[in-house]
Amino acid sequence: MTGPSGRNRILTLILAPGRGRGKHAVRKVDLGAFCPLDANAAQLKAAVRVISGLADVPTMNRGAVHISGSDFMSSAQAGSVERLPLRTKFFFGIGSVGDSIVLATVGSYAMLYYNQILGLNAVLAGLAVSASLFFDGFADPVIGSLSDRTRGRFGRRHAYLFLAPVPIALSVIAVFNPPPGASDLVLFLWFALSVSFMRISISLFNTPHLALGGELSTDYIERSKVLSWNNFFTWAGGAGMNFLALHFVFKATPEYPRGLLNPEPYGPFAVGCGLAAMVLLLASAWYTRDQIPRLPKAPENLPRFSPLEFLKDVGKALGNRNYMWLLIAFFFLSMMIGVRGGLNLYVNTFFWGLTSEQLKWFIFGSFVGYGTGFLFSARMHQRLDKRLNMIIWAVVFSIGPAIPMILGLTGVLSSETPGLTPMLIAFSSVGNAGASVLSITVMSALADIADENELAHGVRQEGVLYSTRNLAAKIDQALGAALAGLALWAISFPPKAKPGSVPDDVLFNLVFVDGILATIPGLIAAVCYARYKITRARFEATKAALAARKAAQGT
Q: Which of 200, 227, 253, 452 is the most exposed place for a label (fewest CB within 10 A)?
């Protein structure tokens, strides 16, 4: 390699024997892509190490200088750890409460309301949900790309955080207030359009909000802590809403011993949820606005949004192999979530025979699970790389909720089993712990991928990275919701059914789909997560290279 001021600075890498290599190999890399022409020794060392990490090379030689992962880590760890104020993390998380109130309201109750109360065919109800997920999914990357390129006094994210809350509130109210006496066709169209508008409005908030969480900190562990608050509050919004709904709104009455089948409370319930969500979302935007000056800004030379630039943004994101494996994994995971989400209330109501009074206590199982994620995810990331955490907790998330259903199919458990409800809550807590830690880990890993893409392309893409992932998830959740509706039709599950009146063979098939078939995509996801390659050392190398580049550029 020529001197630091030379035009052609070719780095000769000596790759040690490893997987796929039976002996030492030689590779040449142009350092100009990784550091400025006048780089000093420290900048060169950082650049060399990041190339090593990106190539999955354990050691390399630069002339007479030998650089190893341990050398780099000791240098990187010498710096101070970035910590965010508790207030910032709290109010960032509050935005997820508003999000999840609306999503849980529609996700948990809308299909049951339209199918079992209004009498809409299960296939049409499932198709309406699927259509909304599909169309909203394509809006996500557009919103992400727009957000990444937005300039102004509110930065890249907050303009959208202030814009979205009112449409969100109006849309959730509309979902549960269809025109009286509507035909099946009108009900289907109302359901599909109102849910689509609701989901697009949620994306207008959720995509910039997640991107904000990814860029609030540049520290490997602090990112996980920030996103732990997001994850816990996501649970708190959905679980709290469900607890209040089952305890106060859908109470059992002599006419409706299963309170969820009472049509009267649904309209006022939607109004309350919409207004509560609007207040919480606005509070999150307002009380995190003080972070705007220190957040990354769109480069002045970044072209304005256009269809061509949008496609380029998506291409940069999809060009990252780690990101692609996370997308593929989430595709399969979302299929499992979509099917289980559509069938969960059916299994609990008709197979286990649980009442609204019993269902409300499941909040404690979810509290244990998501509390585990909130308290211990960052600590687990300190002990194990995020990759191994993703594998372990994807398996737990897939298998945990399926165990009681398998026991039910084999006759070990039944609706008559003493202490059934506490047992189901215990298994629920295991599944929720898996979901919580997995979600925090993946969201934190996406921020690490944003660093890699900034190093490769010179622009941060949190909006595109989080939103393109949402696109894959929603397309697949649409498929999952459609499969749930199709499964209800295929097993001949009766509309407006009463607990105790559904044939045993129909219930067996219902639980087989939810407990056995839905687990398979989740286990496939765990295999895909094993292909993720960003280690702690590789993250630190990328971070150091970015710091060296910014120092050289005076930014």
A: 253
Q: What is the H or E stretch that residue 59 is in?
A: strand 59-62
* CATH T-level fold of 86-291: Growth Hormone; Chain: A; (1.20.1250)
As a whole number of angstroms, the distance between CA 242 and CA 344 comes to: 14
Q: Enter the tokens of residue 360.
A: 């409300």
pTM for this one?
0.74
Buried residues in 140-179 as b, exposed as e (16+ CB within 10 A): bbbbbbbbbbbeeebbbbbbbbeebbebbbebbbbbbebe
Task: Indicate the DSSP class of residue 492.
Answer: T
Asked if 86-291 and 314-554 have one fold, the answer is yes
The pLDDT of residue 26: 44
In whole angstroms, what is the distance from residue 187 CA to residue 194 CA? Answer: 10
Classified as helix, coil or strand, 67 is: strand
Whole-angstrom distance, CA of residue 438 vs CA of residue 228:
11
**pLDDT reported for residue 49:** 55
Mean pLDDT, residues 366-380 taken together? 91
* Domain locations along the chain: 10-63, 86-291, 314-554
Domain covering 314-554 in this structure, CATH number: 1.20.1250.20
Give the integer Cα–Cα distance in Å for 179 and 168.
20
Averaged pLDDT for residues 458-468: 85
Task: Count Cα neighbours of 257 within 13 Å in the Cβ-side half-sphere.
Answer: 7
Largest CA distance in the chain: 87
For residues 481 and 338, the answer to whether their CB atoms sit within 8 Å is: yes
Output the CA torsion sign for 79, 84, 89, 90. positive
Q: How many CB atoms lie within 10 A of CB 36?
A: 16
Q: What are phi and psi of 258, to 5 degrees?
A: -100, 100
Residue 477's nearest CA partner among 382, 337, 365 is 337
Q: Encode pLDDT of 481-496 as tens digits.
A: 678 888 888 898 888 7
Comparing CA positions, the residue from 47, 35, 555 lying closest to residue 301 is 555
| CA atoms of 548 and 543, how far apart (whole Å) | 9
CA–CA dist 109, 103 (Å, integer):
10
- CA angle 341–343–346, rounded 5-degree value: 130
Rg of the chain taking only CA atoms, in angstroms: 25
- Residue 78 scores a pLDDT above 50: no
Q: Are 504 and 492 in contact (CB under 8 A)?
A: no
Per-residue pLDDT at 62 exceeds 90: no
